[in-house]
Amino acid sequence: MKIYTKTGDKGTTALFGGTRVPKHHIRIESYGTIDELNSYIGLIRDQAIDPMHKKVLMEIQDRLFTVGAILATDPEKATLKNGKNRLNIPKISEADIKLLEDNMDSMNATLPPMTHFVLPGGHQTVSFCHIARTVCRRAERLASHLNDLEPFQPETLMYINRLSDYLFVLARKLSHELQADEVKWIPKKES
User: Fold this and answer.
1) Please, what's the b/e burial string for 121-160 (b: 16 or more CB within 10 A of its CB; e: otherwise)?
2) CA 107 to CA 145: how far, in whole Å?
3) Full-prediction pTM beyond 0.85?
4) 118 has which bridge partners?
């Protein structure tokens, strides 16, 4: 299989179903940002962290490929002529969302309560997690915009939203496990 096709040389790309759109189309921005997020999650997974976290991150990476496929599918061509879905893969499910929520609840139970916002940082691995969180928020903004224009499976948007929360809690958990300082943001008083 050749990696280069030359079909995008004029600034367009094909969605699942064959529809060609500009490479700056909101749909391309949406799934491209999910791809970027997936790469950052791989970076977190490559760190010296608890194998349990790595296992969950691997599951998340798998689900992000599903999210990307959903976002890359032209809604007008999502159903084949025989009535079957073009994407022959499981969609994002309530169980996928629950996995994130259960992991957040488990991690939160071991952490001190939050009394302030925290400044990203304290350890390189924690910083990677905060970068992934902010990329996830950008992906959510783009996907939300796309959903306003061309609605897609509601659980997909819910998953992206929950994932950014998960990455925040994971950053706190990693700070705790790596014994990194969690610096509280305390606004300065006006003089």
Assistant:
1) ebbebbbbbbbbbebbbebbebbeebbeeeebbebbbebb
2) 31
3) yes
4) 184
